[in-house]
């Protein structure tokens, strides 16, 4: 054992001496230099010398059991390495900022669309309420006008009756005066009659004259009152007529504004369906055929005997507005049933558009994102396929109204079943990398009557409505 220990000690000493000698004989390795480094241009040497104060030369020692080496890092080499690392970091930061800005812009755009739609619906509700209020005011004015006309007619009847009674009293007065004259003639002719009988007769005539005079005075007062009431009634009728005309004019102005608003709102909806290759009339007929229920008891209609051209014109405009609003509501139902929304709500990158790709037709768009990114139904429909299918990998097919079908390929997980009815915004699967795919993404297709069309036409059309 001692011999062995001594021999080992001698070997270790020898190894130490060898290592020391080796270190003295080591030739430094200049990283990135060539054998002709000594012949580098003076400009390079001067640049290294200038950088020496900022980036002093570094040496990396590489050792093994039998030899040791070191690598010399010149200032220019260090500067190149630092520049490469800085460039890579800057590129990563810029790419991350662009993705974050895109995500924030997409969210802001959706919020703005919702706010615009809510504001438009509130404006329509306000205009409709104002239209109803003006119609109620016009109806109240019409009723007041009718009552005033009836009052005027009644006053005219009373005035005619008063005039008739006045004529009768005048005729009675003439008869009384004639009788008085006859009595006086008889009194003079019959002077031989007694004074008592003549006095009694004069008293009777005087009393009759007083009665007739009072009746005439009362009839004249009633006639003057009736004339004054009739004049006031005519003035009230004129004022109510002016007020009625103002209400009708205001009502017509509101109806015109409302009619223009709904007409302007319908035009983008027509353009939406034309942009995706659909006939708006066919869309409306198809939706209405599914929402055509009617019912309830029928009661006799009431007809007004007092026609008015202004009211009829307002009623025509109101009916036209109702028809246009029904058209807008039908379009809204159609847009809910068609795939107008985005199937992916999280951040993604559009890696391939619709059209030719690698010499073949690419019948959809590719939206790349992490595995497990949620995929939502862009419209109401029925699931017709949910499972594996060739190069599509895990595939979901949804049949929508009006002959439209959507496909979602390369999914990592399918969350619906065949025959299941889904609504717009309902979770149907997760993004993945199944089938013929080079990375995690969603292959999204839209087909109309079996023919593939660009899905972005639906998405852009829906955004243009707002």
TrEMBL record:
Which residues are the signal sequence here?
none
User: Which Gene3D superfamilies did the record assign?
Assistant: Glucose Permease (Domain IIA)
Q: Which keywords appear in this protein's UniProt record, sorted alphabetically?
A: Coiled coil, Hydrolase, Membrane, Transmembrane, Transmembrane helix
Spans of biased composition, class Low complexity?
Answer: 190-199
- The M23ase beta-sheet core domain covers which part of the protein? 361-455
Q: Which residues cross the membrane?
A: 79-101
Output the InterPro entries linked to this UniProt entry: Cell_wall_metabolism_enzyme (IPR050570), DUF5930 (IPR045974), Dup_hybrid_motif (IPR011055), M23ase_b-sheet_dom (IPR016047)
According to UniProt, the name of this protein is Murein DD-endopeptidase MepM and murein hydrolase activator NlpD, contain LysM domain
Which Gene Ontology terms cover its molecular function?
metalloendopeptidase activity
Organism the protein comes from: Paracoccus sediminis
Instruction: State the superkingdom.
Output: Bacteria
Q: CDD domains recorded for this chain?
A: M23_peptidase (cd12797)
Where is coiled-coil annotated? Answer: 216-250
Q: Where's the DUF5930 domain?
A: 44-349
């Amino acid at each position: 054992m001692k011999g062995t220990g001594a021999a080992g000690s001698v070997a270790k000493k020898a190894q130490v001496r060898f290592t020391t000698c080796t270190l003295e004989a080591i030739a430094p390795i200049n990283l990135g230099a060539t054998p002709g480094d000594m012949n580098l241009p003076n400009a390079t040497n001067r640049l290294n010398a200038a950088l020496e104060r900022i980036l002093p030369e570094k040496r990396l020692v590489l050792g093994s059991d039998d030899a040791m080496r070191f690598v010399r890092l010149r200032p220019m080499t260090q500067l190149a390495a630092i520049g490469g690392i800085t460039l890579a970091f800057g590129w990563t930061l810029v790419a991350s900022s662009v993705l974050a800005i895109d995500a924030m812009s997409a969210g802001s755009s959706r919020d703005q669309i919702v706010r615009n739609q809510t504001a438009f619906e509130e404006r329509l509700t306000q205009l409709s309420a104002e239209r109803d209020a003006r119609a109620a005011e016009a109806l109240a004015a019409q009723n007041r006008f009718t009552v005033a006309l009836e009052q005027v007619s009644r006053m005219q009847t009373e005035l005619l009756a008063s005039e008739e009674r006045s004529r009768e009293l005048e005729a009675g007065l003439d008869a009384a005066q004639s009788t008085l004259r006859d009595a006086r003639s008889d009194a003079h002719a019959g002077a031989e009659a007694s004074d008592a009988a003549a006095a009694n007769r004069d008293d009777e005539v005087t009393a009759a004259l007083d009665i007739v005079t009072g009746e005439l005075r009362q009839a004249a007062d009633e006639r003057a009152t009736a004339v004054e009431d009739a004049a006031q009634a005519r003035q009230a009728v004129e004022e109510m007529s002016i007020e009625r005309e103002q209400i009708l004019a205001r009502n017509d102005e509101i109806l015109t504004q409302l009619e223009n608003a709904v007409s302007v709102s319908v035009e983008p909806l027509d353009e939406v369906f034309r942009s995706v290759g659909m006939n708006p009339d066919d869309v409306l007929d198809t939706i209405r055929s599914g929402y055509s229920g009617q019912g309830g008891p029928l009661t006799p209609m009431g007809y007004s005997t007092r026609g008015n051209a202004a009211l009829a014109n307002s009623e025509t405009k109101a009916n036209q507005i109702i028809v246009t609003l029904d058209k807008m509501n039908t379009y809204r139902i159609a847009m809910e049933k068609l795939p107008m929304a985005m199937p992916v709500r999280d951040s993604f990158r559009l890696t391939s558009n619709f059209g030719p790709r690698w010499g073949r037709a690419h019948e959809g768009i590719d939206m790349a994102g992490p595995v497990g990114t949620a995929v939502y139904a862009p419209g109401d429909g029925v699931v017709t396929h949910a499972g594996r299918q060739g190069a599509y990998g895990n595939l979901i097919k949804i049949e929508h109204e009006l002959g439209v079908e959507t496909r979602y390929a390369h999914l990592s997980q399918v969350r619906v079943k065949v025959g299941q009815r889904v609504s717009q915004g309902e979770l149907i699967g997760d993004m993945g990398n199944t089938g013929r795919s080079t990375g995690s993404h969603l292959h999204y297709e839209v087909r109309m009557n079996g023919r593939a069309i660009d899905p972005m036409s639906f998405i852009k059309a829906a955004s243009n409505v707002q």
